[in-house]
Write a structure and sequence with these properties.
By secondary structure, this protein is mostly helical. The chain contains two helices and two strands. The chain has a two-stranded antiparallel ribbon with strand order 1-2.
C-alpha cells in the first residue's frame, strides 16, 4: 500500500501563490455576498417589525386615526395623494 507523506507533492511558489490568491478572491466574494444578504435580511426584519407594530396599534385603535406617528409613517408610507373628490390615496413602500 502506497502512502503519501505531507509535502511530497512539489509545487512552484508561483503556482502556490496563484492558487492562494484565487482562494482569497473566492473567499472575499463569498464574504461580501454573505454580508449583503445579512444586511438585507436585517433591513427586511426591521421593516417587518415596524409594520407589525403599526398594524397591531391600528387594530387596537378606532378606524379613524386621530394622531399620526411620523417616524413609523415615514418609514412605510411612500406618498399620500388627496384626490379631487376628497379621498386620500396612500401608496405604501413594499419591502
Amino acid at each position: 500500500m502506497r502512502q503519501r507523506k505531507c509535502g511530497q507533492k512539489k509545487q512552484s511558489q508561483e503556482a502556490y501563490a496563484r492558487k492562494y490568491n484565487a482562494l482569497v478572491k473566492r473567499y472575499d466574494k463569498a464574504a461580501s455576498r454573505l454580508n449583503d444578504a445579512t444586511a438585507g435580511r436585517n433591513l427586511r426584519a426591521t421593516h417587518d417589525r415596524e409594520l407589525r407594530i403599526f398594524i397591531s396599534e391600528s387594530t387596537e385603535k378606532p378606524l379613524v386615526l386621530e394622531e399620526w406617528n411620523e417616524g413609523l409613517g415615514a418609514s412605510i408610507l411612500e406618498t399620500a395623494t388627496v384626490q379631487r373628490n376628497g379621498h386620500i390615496l396612500f401608496l405604501f413602500n413594499v419591502y
